[in-house]
Specification:
By secondary structure, this protein is an alpha/beta fold. The protein has a single domain (4-255), classed as Vaccinia Virus protein VP39 (Rossmann fold, 3-Layer(aba) Sandwich). Strand 1, helix 7 (108-115) and strand 2 form a beta-alpha-beta unit. The longest helix is centred in the first third of the chain and has 17 residues, at 71-87. The chain is globular and about 45 Å long. It is built from eleven helices and seven strands. Strands 3-2-1-4-5-7-6 form a seven-stranded mixed sheet.
Length: 257
């Protein structure tokens, strides 16, 4: 009989088993995070990006960030805020927005600061654990509770209902390799169905911003938009001096009729 460790490393069967275990073992210890002042958070940044961060802080309300951000979440929130500021156009008026695949909710502060209105963050693999034994969900709920009206939703995008003024989607799974690298079963690779559902959640005039990693994924994304019948503007390379990431990213912006 195969051992548990061998099953967990055995391709698709292992990913299915690991997924079932994560859905069964959902308890998490509480997230404990020491509040930091905004100047203290700014000091965690590399000197080369400090002026860009301070410029954003002068234009947007970052109140609440000191309660919910660690150093990594602070950098990612600034990056996301910068991307939305330069590529997403005007935020919606008052209506909630949605972020798909929000992981541990670390950059929710950046989304909230851009729009000034509530966000829902949905994450399929919300019960994945860190070395502290805390889960993505525990971290996401901790962050969301510190931002007015925000929610962290552990579950499948296909189960989300409602109407959203903006939807952001950073690095959707378009090919099998990234999905498998994150330990997810193959049945969750359904990019066309997910894109179609996300598009149907947008209010009239709502904006869908998708960021892909690498040219191959951007080309695949463009084909998916055409297949679903969505007219999306290709933004080309999406750059930011605040980006903590190495690989090039590309963006698309679509506005619901």
């Amino acid at each position: 009989m195969a051992s548990l460790s061998s099953l967990l490393n055995d391709g698709e069967p292992g990913r299915r088993l690991a997924w079932r275990l994560r859905q069964m073992l959902t308890w998490s210890p509480p997230v404990i995070r020491r509040p930091r002042t905004l100047p203290a958070l700014l000091r965690t940044l590399p000197p080369a990006v400090l002026s860009a961060a301070e410029a954003l802080a002068s234009r947007y309300d970052l109140s609440g960030w000191e309660r919910v951000c660690d150093a990594q979440g602070f950098r990612e929130s600034l990056y996301v805020l910068d991307v939305l500021d330069r590529y997403a156009g005007s935020p919606p008026d008052s209506i909630p927005s949605l972020d798909i695949g929000c992981k541990n909710g670390g950059y929710l502060p950046g989304l909230h600061a851009w729009s000034g209105s509530p966000w829902d963050g949905v994450e399929l693999d919300a019960h994945r654990r860190y070395w502290t034994m805390t889960t993505r969900r525990a971290h996401g709920e901790f962050v969301a509770c510190g931002l007015p009206g925000c929610r962290y939703l552990a579950g499948d995008l296909l189960d989300i209902e409602g109407v959203y003024g903006s939807i952001t989607w950073f690095l959707p799974f378009l090919h099998a390799a990234p999905l498998r690298a994150w330990g997810l079963p193959d049945r969750f690779l359904m990019p066309q169905r997910l894109l179609d559902h996300a598009w149907n959640l947008l209010a009239p005039g709502g904006r869908l911003l998708i960021i892909n990693q690498g040219e191959a994924e951007a080309e695949r994304q463009s084909c998916l938009f055409q297949k679903v019948g969505i007219h999306a503007k290709a933004l080309g390379p999406v750059t930011s001096v605040l980006s903590p990431f190495q690989r090039p990213r590309y963006g698309f912006l679509a506005i619901s009729p």
